[in-house]
Write a structure and sequence with these properties.
Elements (H helix, E strand, L loop, with lengths): L1 H10 L3 E6 L12 E6 L5 H9 L17 E6 L3 E5 L10 H17 L3 E9 L6 H13 L3 E6 L8 H13 L10 E2 L8 H12 L3
Parallel strand pairs: 2-4, 2-5, 5-6, 6-7
Antiparallel strand pairs: 1-3, 3-4
Helix pairs in contact: 1-6
């Protein structure tokens, strides 16, 4: 039933709203929001496109650091998806990266209608030090985040179970970590219906 609810939600209207570079231009906090965060080139835009069934809703690029603002997408007035700038390596001047970082942290810390952060981790590499820093900040801000493994189709047989067990152990004692880890492949569609269902439940306040 949850998977069907997710299918219906993401089959409906889904439109780009706006890109935000200053907190005072954020849309009103009157709709539940789910933010997607992760290292540069982890596959955020590809996952958003896979979830929504749109090829070019979020602009995917092989160049790390392309997303340079908070990009908001509206799902029929029921849920908003927020594509955050990637952290870590980015082809941009340091002062620009610092500005993105401050904007992102201020949004995550103070957004009252932010219901969950989907924290993307490349399944081939696992949780890195930069991810640990974001997790610590989310723990301190009491913002619930769900680790979501990407590019699982790139793993050899048996590697995914090992990565899942390792990731579960890494987040076990983190206070704001959601206990269920999502495993996805945007190319193959693996885990997409299940993640849609979880996001639909959030949209319904479940």
């Amino acid at each position: 039933m949850r998977i069907e609810a997710g299918r219906k939600l993401f089959a409906g209207p889904c439109d780009f709203m706006l890109g935000v570079v200053k907190l005072d231009t954020l849309p009103p906090p009157d709709v539940p929001e789910i933010a997607f965060a992760g290292r540069s080139n982890v596959g955020k835009s590809s996952l958003i496109n896979a979830l929504t069934g749109r090829k070019n809703l979020a602009r995917a690029s092989n160049a790390p650091g392309r997303t340079r603002e908070l990009n908001f997408f509206d799902l029929g007035g029921r849920l908003r998806i927020v594509d955050l700038p990637g952290y870590g390596f980015a082809k941009a001047p340091k002062e620009v990266v610092d500005r993105w970082t401050a904007l992102t942290k201020n949004y995550l810390r103070g957004r009252v209608n932010l219901k969950r952060v989907i924290l993307l981790i490349d399944s081939r590499h696992g949780i890195k030090a930069t991810d640990e820093g974001i997790m610590k900040a989310l723990d301190e801000a009491a913002v619930v985040y769900q680790v979501t493994l990407t590019k699982t189709d790139k793993l050899k047989k048996g590697e995914l179970d090992k990565r899942l067990a390792e990731t579960e152990e890494r987040i076990r004692r983190r206070p704001a970590a959601f206990p269920v880890i999502a495993a996805t492949s945007s190319d193959k569609g693996t885990g997409i219906p299940e993640l849609r269902g979880q996001l639909a439940a959030i949209a319904e306040g479940l």
